[in-house]
Specification:
The protein has eleven helices and ten strands. By secondary structure, it is of the alpha/beta class. The protein has a domain of about 210 residues: NAD(P)-binding Rossmann-like Domain (Rossmann fold), CATH 3.40.50. Strands 5-4-3-6-7-8-9-10 form an eight-stranded mixed β-sheet, sandwiched between helices. A two-stranded antiparallel ribbon has the order 1-2.
């Protein structure tokens, strides 16, 4: 047989047709693999009101097995809305652990960008995120850590005008900012909106944590720290320095207090303050009580002389 001037024997033609058929089958299989229907995957943001999916049950298994948390506690975490003030030294570890723990909605407000000097302690961020607003850098990392929760970034400075409106949307506020004016503003908005406040602070080698909830009889932040410290008495981390692992320790304690507060496990630091000294590896707790005539929370508490600072 002659095709295009080339002589083919019948055997050779049969062989070529067979090879072409095999090639067609291979190409067809490849086409099917590429265009097959993808397997059913869970939506990235499941309905936080519905029952937990198998993936979530697996993800939170180490919580669910804890007697003090269990499935009910994990559901409470999933339905809770927590606002984190500041995505810096304390905010970064707080955000990581709250996101990993499955807090359903996490708001974060900060107007700063990621800078190189942050990376010595703010391990949520990396070198590829330099100059990016912290709230967006955090959102990207937290979404990658846990796609089953909502992250709400607010790329701005908290103001008196919007604090109360914003706080009304949340069940709990965690404040890790490093200036008195913001702390006072956060405290006032928390008292106004009846929102519990977990407050942390760090400087050099020492940190402290407390939970303020005057509606439940505890002091508010202003009961303990009523006045702005004089210039130079409370230097910022940029001025005084801070040991890299310290915000990880204090931020993790803040996240732990948040998890206990939401799930009802154990006893929180309401009405107490934990002080941790990393330089000597020491910690102590002191009792706090309400300041009479506190201009912020009304001073319904009894008179006391145990103030930590005045
Ligand atoms: Zn007060």
């Amino acid at each position: 047989m002659e095709i295009l001037g080339i002589q083919f024997s019948v055997e050779r033609l049969q062989f070529i047709v067979m090879m072409l058929l095999i090639l067609a089958v291979i190409l067809y299989i490849r086409f099917l693999r590429k265009h097959r229907t993808p397997p059913e995957i869970e939506p990235a943001k499941p309905d936080l009101e519905g029952p937990m999916s198998d993936t979530e049950l697996d993800r939170y298994a180490r919580h669910i097995v804890l007697r003090e948390v269990g499935g009910a506690g994990q559901q409470r975490l999933r339905k809770s809305k927590v606002l984190v003030i500041g995505a810096g030294g304390l905010g970064a570890p707080v955000l990581q652990y709250l996101a990993a723990a499955g807090v359903g909605a996490i708001g974060v407000i900060d107007d700063d960008i990621v800078s190189l000097s942050n990376l010595q302690r703010q391990v949520l961020f990396d070198e590829n995120q330099l100059d990016i607003p912290k709230v967006f850098a955090a959102e990207a990392k937290l979404a990658a850590l846990n796609p089953h929760i909502q992250i709400r970034p607010y790329n701005r400075r908290l103001t008196t005008e919007d604090a109360s409106t914003l706080f009304a949307d949340y069940d709990l506020v965690l404040d890790g900012t490093d200036n008195f004016k913001t702390r006072a503003l956060v405290n006032k908005a928390c008292v106004t909106t009846n929102t519990p406040l977990i407050s942390g602070a760090i400087s050099q080698w020492e940190g402290q944590v407390s939970l303020f909830h005057p509606a439940k009889g505890t002091p508010c932040y202003a009961c303990i720290f009523p006045n702005e410290p004089a210039d130079g008495l409370a230097p910022s981390c940029a001025e005084a320095g801070v040991m890299g692992a310290l915000p990880g320790i204090i931020g993790s304690i803040m996240a732990s207090e948040a998890i206990k507060h939401i799930t009802g496990a154990g006893q929180t630091m309401a009405g107490e303050m934990l002080i941790f000294d990393a330089l000597y590896g020491e910690s102590r707790k002191i009792g706090l009580s309400r300041r009479e005539n506190c201009p912020i929370c009304g001073g319904r508490g009894e008179k006391n002389d145990q103030h930590v600072a005045g």
